[in-house]
Amino acid sequence: MANILIVDDEESINELVKLNLKLVGHTCDQAYDGREALDMVTKGPYDLILLDVMLPFISGFDLMKKIKETPVIFMTAKDRIEDKIQGLTSGAEDYLVKPFEILELIARINIVLRRTKTENTVFKLVDMEMDREGKVVRYRNKEIDLTPQEYCLLEVFVINQNLALSREKLLELAWGYEYEGDTRTVDVHVQKLRKKLGLEERIKTVYKVGYRLEV
Amino acid sequence: MKFWQKVFLSVLILFVVALNIGMFTVMHFTYKEQLSSVKQRAKGEAYFLRNSISKDFTNLEETSTLTRDKKETIYDSYKTYYMEQNVFLELWSGNSLIGGTFDLNIESRDELDTVDNVQNLLIREVDQEEYLFLACNLEEPYENHILVIAYPLTELTNTRKQLVQMVIATDIAITILLSVILYLIIRKLMKPLKRLSEATGEITQGNYSQEIHIQSQDEFGSLAKKFNTMSERINENINLLQEESDRKQQLIDNMAHELRTPLTSISGYADYMRMAALSEEERIHALDYIIAETKRLEKLSRTLLMIADIREGVLTKTAVSTEQIKIYIQNLFHNQLKEKQILLEVNCEIETIEASEVMLQCILGNLIENAIRACEVEGRITVTFYNHEGTCFTVEDNGIGMEAEEIAKIMEPFYRVDNARSRKHGGVGLGVTLCHQIVKVHQGELRYESEVNKGTKVIVTFTT
């Protein structure tokens, strides 16, 4: 879906972010220090840069001054309010403090991408087609009538494709924090989606976890 | 009241009092002097008159009898003359008055009771004017006759009044002049004090870099010099404290980062394994990261504990055999050295070294580990134990070396020369800090000599 540059000197974290982003459909490049990152930024255009602050050679804040147009999300262990302010006032789209949940990172990436990236918003899977810009879902070229809640749930699945989401998480992401419904609501909606869009084989039930849209 | 006001007032009062005492004393003596000269003159006059009148009486008696009328005539001849001189005369024969020019309102005539000779003087105030009275009896055989002379002292009292007025006028003039001059002088003298007080105020406000320029060599000058030294010291200390607190903050930041990073990884990979459908290979890949990061946390906590232990623990030194240390090192790094084909050479110029064995192993382990990391494949590391103003050892490598700035930084906890590479080898960034702590409890010294692309030499000296 998007081409993302991950800059973090921690190999394990860099790799973790890459593995997850790959699962949800992004292509990733990795840089482990400031110089390498600067090099890669000048070479290839990226849709988004995930940037650590404490980096060898060139710090994330300094690097930020050299990045012109690409949107940036800081992900750092620096959680002091001064650092946050500095990060956000330097022109970054978002500031994520470690340790963070990967689903949160994915959600924030999507928010940024929806704002900055316009093309390629149609998602296809088997016979299903989802136009996220027009908010239209087709199955076998026929427009399917989805309730707003079903549409939201489908969008959550698409954004977090290949990741198993708990019923609680699905409630939180698709219905919002305020919703106080039962987790069985999720089961009912998942059943409807499977039936309407022929996704019985794609929306898997993961034992003891929840549901996963496999792409 | 301000200090300058106190000084001003005390000096002024003291001066005015002294001035007045001086002037009035002079005045008093002058008056006394004048009075005594008047008295002298009166006495002379009286003496002469007494003589003359007595003689006149004698002469007259030789030719005729001395009647009261004749006495009056004689008296009158003198009276007129003395009236012109503004001197009053009176002549008594026993208790009856022969003649007198006193038109004064005198209540008592004490002088008449004590008549003997010319010595009897009396000053009396009549109608607000002072007179000098002098009474004496005539010479024998006329001793029952009394002659009284009164001199007015108007001139003298007038002079005295004028003098007093002059003194008061001078007093006021001098006091005003003095106040002005004194004010200016004190103000000028107090200026450094004002400056000092202002500077102290600034320091209280938190502006610690104050400098006062006072040229004078007096107490203020030396106070200003001391003040400058003091403010400089305070400034230095404040800066030191600031640096120290910055360093502490940095340490806490780093520590949080060091703890958070492996935790983020661990929870992240665990989450990833739970959420994603993974192949066996991917599963193991993720698990490897979890295990490695857990080990790193463990090592971090172990190292931090060790640093705390070293700082607070008791140092038990023994004579550690260098040969044994040599064997220990070679065994410990056998695999790593083989892998990178690095040659480790250990020279023992001394047989034993006074130190805690565990700590010695720890410090050497850390230094050699760093040396191996710095070395390229087929590098060379030399460890030498020798004696030079205390027991020393050096760890020398021919690796990538460091720049001078980096040498200063490597002492800082969690600083890594090459972050990515160090982490891969499981470093926690506390090695040099630990070494430093160990050397410190041995009251020793740890020094780095390094040149980029030539190599690094660590020199450790145990002075005790």
TrEMBL record, chain A:
GO biological process: regulation of DNA-templated transcription
Transmembrane domains' residue ranges: none
Highest taxon in the source lineage: Bacteria
Response regulatory domain sequence ranges: 3-113
The organism of origin for this protein: Anaerosporobacter mobilis DSM 15930
SUPFAM superfamilies: C-terminal effector domain of the bipartite response regulators (SSF46894), CheY-like (SSF52172)
Sites of 4-aspartylphosphate modification: D52
Cited function: May play the central regulatory role in sporulation. It may be an element of the effector pathway responsible for the activation of sporulation genes in response to nutritional stress. Spo0A may act in concert with spo0H (a sigma factor) to control the expression of some genes that are critical to the sporulation process.
Gene Ontology molecular function: phosphorelay response regulator activity; transcription cis-regulatory region binding
Segments of the chain annotated as binding DNA: 120-215
Domain OmpR/PhoB-type: 120-215
Descriptive protein name: Stage 0 sporulation protein A homolog
Keywords: DNA-binding, Phosphoprotein, Transcription, Transcription regulation, Two-component regulatory system
GO cellular component: cytosol; protein-DNA complex
Listed InterPro entries: CheY-like_superfamily (IPR011006), OmpR/PhoB-type_DNA-bd (IPR001867), Sig_transdc_resp-reg_C-effctor (IPR016032), Sig_transdc_resp-reg_receiver (IPR001789), WalR-like (IPR039420), WH-like_DNA-bd_sf (IPR036388)
TrEMBL record, chain B:
Domain Histidine kinase: 254-464
InterPro entries associated with the record: HAMP_dom, HATPase_C_sf, HATPase_dom, His_kinase_dom, HisK_dim/P_dom, HisK_dim/P_sf, HssS/ArlS-like, Sig_transdc_His_kin-like_C
Transmembrane segment boundaries: 7-31, 163-186
Catalysed reaction equations from the record: ATP + protein L-histidine = ADP + protein N-phospho-L-histidine
Annotated EC: 2.7.13.3
The keyword Transport is annotated on this UniProt entry: no
Top-rank lineage group of the source organism: Bacteria
Alphabetically ordered keywords of this record: ATP-binding, Cell membrane, Coiled coil, Kinase, Membrane, Nucleotide-binding, Phosphoprotein, Transferase, Transmembrane, Transmembrane helix, Two-component regulatory system
Family matches, as SUPFAM superfamilies: ATPase domain of HSP90 chaperone/DNA topoisomerase II/histidine kinase, HAMP domain-like, Homodimeric domain of signal transducing histidine kinase
Name by which UniProt lists this protein: histidine kinase
